[in-house]
Amino acid sequence: MKNKGSALIIAILMIAFLASAGILLILVTTTGPRVASNIRLQEEAFNAAEAGFDAAWAVIENFFETEQWASFDGHYLTTDKNGNNIDTPWINGEVNPYYFRRLSDEELLNALEGLQPEPTTPGLIFNRQTFIQDNQNYTYTVFLIDDEAGSGTSDPTDALLVCIGTGPGNTTKRLEIEIYVEIQS
């Protein structure tokens, strides 16, 4: 008589377990496509940033080959559209909230919005340049930063090339590449 109802309890536990497993399966199968979509958007933004690097490198090489530039000195982006210093992490011993590495990609793009590239704004090579013709969802912004800014000693033979690619849904990806040019004396 003590075993009466134990089959019912086991059946309820099994149904609860199967329901939990079913819910988990549904969650896993619906999350996969969202993750894959997010990865695809990130890859597209990365491709735009890479295209910005390729285009900027061609421009920079041309500036040096045609002797329009003798070094990177004077060709660094130092301020945003509001005149805020973006290339120095510290100003007078205080944290600079406008330093480019403290800003998200979106904040940085907004801070540069409307600025025109070289020669109007030294250091800005491309701003919201379209990566795919007739498609404003794919753009890149590229600029040069003095990688020694704030340290007191600047080296005009190298620079930090910052490329921000934008893909669909305002997905962004930032590349920071140190570039060096051998200058003939």
Helix content: 25-40%
Number of helices: 2
Described by the principal axes of the CA atoms, the overall outline is elongated
**Largest sheet: number of strands, sense, barrel closure:** 4 strands, antiparallel
Tell me the series of helices and strands, N- to C-terminal: HEEHEEEE
Number of domains: 1
The count of strands amounts to 6
- How far the N terminus sits from the C terminus, by CA atoms, comes to 102 Å
**Strand order within the widest beta sheet:** 3-4-5-6
What is the CA-atom radius of gyration, in angstroms? 26 Å
How large is the share of residues in beta strands?
15-25%
Can you give the mean pLDDT?
A: 89
Structural class category: alpha+beta
Low-confidence regions:
none
Can you walk me through this structure?
The chain is built from two helices and six strands. The protein has one domain (10-180). With 185 residues, it is α+β, with helices and mostly antiparallel strands. The protein has helices at 6-65, 105-112; strands at residues 90-91, 94-95, 124-132, 135-145, 158-166, 172-180. Strands 3-4-5-6 form a four-stranded antiparallel beta sheet. A two-stranded antiparallel sheet has the order 1-2.
Task: Spell out the key features of this protein.
single chain, 2 helices, two-stranded antiparallel ribbon, 185 residues, alpha+beta
